[in-house]
Amino acid sequence: MAIGIEELGNHVEIILQQLRVKCRKSNLLHGNAALFAVEDFGTMVCCINRIDYGQANNIIMEHYKNWRIVHVTTNDNLLDIRLTILWSLMRGGYMRWMRFNFPRQIRNVLTGQENLGQRIIEERLRVWADRPKYKFLIDDNKDVLKNGIIRVLADDPGFFDYMPEEE
After folding, report:
1. Into how many domains does the chain fold?
2. Which end of the chain is more exposed for a tag (fewer CB within 10 A), N or C?
3. Do the domain assignments include residue 167?
4. Taking every pair of C-alpha atoms in the chain, what is the biggest distance, in angstroms?
5. pLDDT tens digits, residue range 8-53?
């Protein structure tokens, strides 16, 4: 069931608060779109209706040219939205920032209920798509899935610091 822009904006704002990032909120298209600028990680989250996508995208590309843009629509699943925002933040250094600012919580975040460590690896594998140029990285990530996330955290605390760019 689709929700309205205001409610979607509230959900995105809660997601960003849960991720502990600072953001600046603004409205676009006379309240038909909400923007959340996460300046520390160069990410712009744009909440829009599908019908407003083209007009909103033109304005965003003009004013936020070199930012990562995450489009969120009123029809999107909230869990998918959260992960999409997280992947974008990670591409800007979010997990490294988390590890340095919240060192005691990072292990629980990666191995807890959401199983975020496994999801990160699965997303990396999806992005790399069995391309031969990523063979070592693919094998390394698959090994972590076999051997366990806790072990890699002990040996390489920065293993989860990055998310590859989409090609």
Report:
1. 2
2. N
3. no
4. 52
5. 999 999 999 999 999 999 887 776 788 999 999 999 999 987 766 6
Q: Do 55 and 28 share a structural domain?
A: yes
Instruction: Write down which residue in 76, 109, 135 finishes a domain.
Output: 76
Give the structural domain span for 142.
Answer: 95-155
Evaluate whether residue 25 is within a structural domain.
yes
CA 17 to CA 15: how far, in whole Å?
5
Identify whether 84 is part of a domain: no
The secondary structure of the chain in percent helix, strand, coil, rounded to multiples of 5, reads 55, 15, 30
Backbone angles phi, psi at 104, to 5 degrees: -75, -25
* Interval 64-105: pLDDT, tens: 889 999 999 888 898 899 999 999 999 999 999 999 999 989
The model carries a pTM of 0.91
Instruction: Quote the tokens at residue 51.
Output: 């019908």
Q: Which residues pair with 38 in a beta bridge?
A: 43
Going 85 to 89 to 91 to 97, the CA torsion angle's sign is: negative
Q: How far apart are CA 49 and CA 63, in angstroms?
A: 20
